[in-house]
Amino acid sequence: MTSGSGSGAGRPLIGITGRQYPYGEVAGTPDLLADALVDAVLTDYVRAVIASGGLPVHIPFDVDPVEIVWALDGLILTGGADIDPTNYGAARDQETGRSEPRRDEVELALATAALDRGSPTLGVCRGMQVLNVAAGGTLHQHVPAHACYQHRAPGLIHDIATEHGSVLAEVYGPAHRVNSYHHQTIDRPGEPFRVTARADDGEAEGLEHRDAPIVAVQWHPEMLRTRDPIFDWLVAAAAGGTAAES
Q: Catalytic positions, please?
């Protein structure tokens, strides 16, 4: 894998996806700017990357996905809205939420470019699902036991068990307690992925690429109040090392 630009005084550049929406959705926006589009990224991801030694880069919707992936050292595909099920050949379940087609388009292209390049990548919640769909996998559209949106962050809800020898086992150990702010899960993993963490009910909570430094988790590590080691792993991988060396 060829590294990215490597600017930032040696700190690896970590791209972070976000949302694009009309500025009018923000309270207090002047009427003349109501239709202007805003690209936004959640600050929790930015702070997590900085804390782990990386230099965060917001990925705007209008950038070329392949070009930006090759310019970066690592990538985070963040949480968010349900993916339109037509992207994995399924009919829409009545419990599937409103999708954001433009975001689906951009992030699936980013994920495909990262898979093609073998870029160090972390998928979070929706990001795990995006990676799986980009790799030809499918999703369970509604698993209500996991939809714990009523809990405030960090809202640790259940344990996950990791597979021995996996990246997630090295990062978290054999078991780890996580939050749960999702109602969709992995059905069939895409060909390059294997499930390396599961909840007590058997639902997939972690995916790892068989050959590349690409890892995804179904929970939200960026929302925890303590520094989460998965971001250390990503920044170390983006720098060409391992978390143990960082």
A: 125, 220, 222
